[in-house]
Amino acid sequence: MTDAFSLPPEAAEPRLSVAARALGLLRTVPALAPRYADRPAALTTLDELAALPPLVKDDLNVALDHLEPRAGTGATWLFQSGGSTGAPKVGYAPTGFYMAGVHAHWQPLDREDTFVNAWGAGRMWGAHFLAAALADLAGCRVMALGSVTREEYGDWLGFLADQRATAIGGTPSVLRLWFAHARATGLKLPALRKVIWLGEAWQPQLAEDVAAVAPQARRWGMFGSTETWVVGTNTPDCPADTFHPLPEQLVHVGPDGLLDFTTLNPEMLNPVLRYRTGDAGELTTCPCGRPGRAMRVLGRRDSVVQVRGLGLHVDELVARAEREPGVARAQVVITEHGGRATGVDVLLLTHRSAGPDAAVGAAAVDTARLRTELLSATFTLSTAFQHDPENFRVRAVEELVSNDRTGKTAGFVVRPADQEEA
Ligand SMILES: [Zn+2]
After folding, report:
1. How much distance in Å is there from the Cα of 195 to the middle of ligand 1?
2. Which residues pair with 103 in a beta bridge?
3. Separation of 166 CA from ligand 1 center, angstroms?
4. What is the distance in A from the centroid of ligand 1 to the CA of 237?
5. Is residue 388 one of the residues assigned to a domain?
6. pLDDT tens-digit series, residues 364-400
7. pLDDT of 156 over the 70 cut
8. Which end of the chain is more exposed for a tag (fewer CB within 10 A), N or C?
9. What separation in Å is there between the alpha carbon of 131 and the centre of ligand 1?
10. Could you tell me the distance, in angstroms and rounded to a whole number, from the CA of residue 291 to the centre of ligand 1?
11. What are the two backbone dihedrals, phi and then psi, of residue 162, each rounded to the nearest 5 degrees?
12. Is the per-residue pLDDT at 13 higher than 70?
């Protein structure tokens, strides 16, 4: 069973006192105590850890509500955590955001860099501050840009080129907008060497746009969540879906292929004990040659949604649409009425609509042909819409549907029929 862990027993077990403390805390949470009641109090081996029940997002929020942890020194920061709809749920971190442990093993930035921090700041989002802490440890120049509106990309890109920015960091879907705009307008960032990302899977189309805009730039990825903070990192020599877990993060692959995470960092405020993010994955050897077990992330299990009783693989549909020349991003919108899918729309953000002056070189996307291809190639769609194929639509739009609260633009959105556009 221990080969399902990222660390061998001799490396992990001496540090399980941190997990034992998390277990003790979780036992004090009235709503969670019963599930740990018949478990032994000791937690000294990986087998004992694997026998504990996993936590899911809501469990951790319930625990934090009760525990209200505080940092030993400095401020205790509250960040958005949990569901992408409804009121924000809260995760905690001390100033520094555990980035010293990340920087000890991963240094994408150095003193010579001019780093553009393009993760949104504010709204209790964590990534901007986490990246700022990394830049602090690297001692580089920092431009805390945050999020900008579509109309501003052109001016800011010119400024970043003038400043000879060498590194930029953001969520792949936001970086995608930056680089798609630059590419469509013919703007280059010749000094850019590093693209740092966190928050979503890397996107092949982003790699193409980066290659066109900043030929010297290479990607540096972090994997994590607001609950676990940074779990692992990769370098340009690693596959984009493969990360090297930090020694203070214990990764476990369950029999169902779902990943769960246990912190071995005594300063961690969230009681992260077999916490599931919903990502599936496997432990593997990274082709970059770095020894130890690497974690390959295979995507979220919840990317399969039910459409008229059939499972629709949203990620596959989005990936297929995004392979179409001229498509910057795609999004699947499922309209529901009374729990039944009345329609599925594939929205396309084309290079033409990526900015006001982005028409240069952008080919018009043949949405009718793409629709026919998607419909015939996707069993779920062709079957579910057999009698009303007109309710599967593909169309180019000016903007995708994003969540105003989290700022995230998900690969798929479900909305009630009364919010459907006329
Ligand atoms: Zn590697």
Report:
1. 16
2. none
3. 22
4. 6
5. yes
6. 789 999 999 998 888 788 888 888 899 999 999 988 8
7. yes
8. C
9. 21
10. 9
11. -60, -35
12. yes
- Distance from Cα 170 to the centre of ligand 1, integer Å: 21
Instruction: Work out the average pLDDT over 264-282.
Output: 94
Domain that holds residue 373: 308-419
> Using N-to-C axis directions, what is the helix angle for 172-185 and 204-213, rounded to 10°?
40
- Residues whose CB falls within 8 Å of the CB of residue 276, separated by 6 or more in sequence, listed in order: 54, 55, 56, 57, 254, 258, 259, 260, 261
CA of 264 to the centre of ligand 1 (A): 22
310-313 and 327-337 as β-strands: parallel, antiparallel, unpaired? Answer: unpaired
Residue 350 CA neighbour count, 13 Å, CB half? 19
Give the tens place of pLDDT for each residue, 313-322.
888 888 889 8
Position 207 pLDDT exceeds 50: yes
DSSP percent split of the chain into helix, strand, coil, nearest 5: 30, 25, 40
Q: What is the CA radius of gyration of the chain?
A: 22
Specify the 3-state DSSP secondary structure of 52: coil
- 282 forms bridges with which residues in the sheet? 296
Interval between CA 44 and ligand 1 midpoint (Å): 30
Cα 329 versus chain centre, distance: 16
Measured in Å, residue 285 CA sits from the centre of ligand 1 at 8
User: Structurally, how many domains does the chain consist of?
Assistant: 1
Kindly report the pTM of this predicted structure. Answer: 0.78
Q: Which amino acid is at 226?
A: T
Domain with residue 348: its CATH number is 3.30.300.30
**How remote is the CA of residue 176 from the centroid of ligand 1, in Å?**
24
- Which residue has tokens 């903007």? 399
Contact between residue 23 and residue 53 where contact means Cβ atoms under 8 Å apart: no
Strand positions, DSSP E, 272-339:
275-284, 294-300, 304-307, 310-313, 327-337
Instruction: Label residue 224 by pLDDT band (50, 70, 90).
Output: very high
Model pLDDT, residue 421: 52
347-359 residue pLDDT tens: 999 875 544 444 4
To which residue do tokens 């953001």 refer?
170
In a domain, 336, yes or no: yes
**Separation between Cα atoms, residue 282 and residue 253, nearest integer Å:** 6
Whether 110 shows a pLDDT value over 60: the answer reads yes
Phi-psi region of 333 (alpha: psi -120 to 50; beta: other; left: phi over 0): beta
Above 80 in pLDDT, residue 172? Answer: yes
Domain annotation covers residue 321? yes
Q: Is residue 121 part of a domain?
A: no
Query: Mean pLDDT of all residues in the chain?
Result: 89
